[in-house]
């Protein structure tokens, strides 16, 4: 029996947007993944919390955004773990979980992240353990050059995804200024942003 091929997409998802979903779908297609697990960060060690959505809101937005695709699911391992979120812990927790859920199958793991984050991976905690646990896929917008930081070619792939010109930072700015976010995030995510007044929401009356 062949190994299951499981992708893990980690990120703050603050908010999750269509670029994230397109990237996950494209990686799933290119690498023949059986499933992609979205793992919203709990406390990101490298990001300030000012102006950002709470962990539970980010988790809920991710669940709503991914619900329609049977290849996607969302995990709480990073949300529920106390302290800062580190990729090595995410992968270890999921590998332990799947050892219980699917003891009959071996699993090939893929970790999906932005190419800008990948460029700094040699500074990540226990990077050798990450390379041992999963193949890393760095997704990037077209035309974005990634300087080679000395990553092992056999363990890292890069993939251009046009929809990644969308950014969570820009969406938060648009929400604060009252600009539309239609077609940048799934409609259910836009509704949650309005309902919970996330990011200094300025247009509750219009639902976006």
Structure description:
- The chain is an alpha/beta fold and 208 residues long.
- It is 36% helix and 19% strand.
- The strands form 2 sheets. A 6-stranded parallel sheet has the order 4-2-1-6-7-8, with helices on both faces.
- The longest helix has 15 residues.
- The protein is globular.
- The C terminus is likely disordered.
Describe the SSE topology.
Blueprint: E1 4-11, H1 18-31, E2 35-40, E3 43-44, H2 55-66, E4 72-74, H3 77-80, E5 84-85, H4 87-101, E6 107-114, H5 115-118, H6 127-133, E7 135-140, E8 156-160, H7 168-177, H8 187-195
Parallel strand pairs: 1-2, 1-6, 2-4, 3-5, 6-7, 7-8
Helix pairs in contact: 2-8, 4-6
Which key features would you list for this structure?
208 residues, alpha/beta, two-stranded parallel sheet, 8 strands, globular
Largest sheet: 6 strands, parallel
State the helicity in percent bands.
25-40%
Task: Note the total helix count.
Answer: 8
How much of the sequence lies in strands comes to 15-25%
Give the assembly state of these chains. single chain
Strand order, sheet with most strands? 4-2-1-6-7-8
* N-to-C series of helices and strands: EHEEHEHEHEHHEEHH
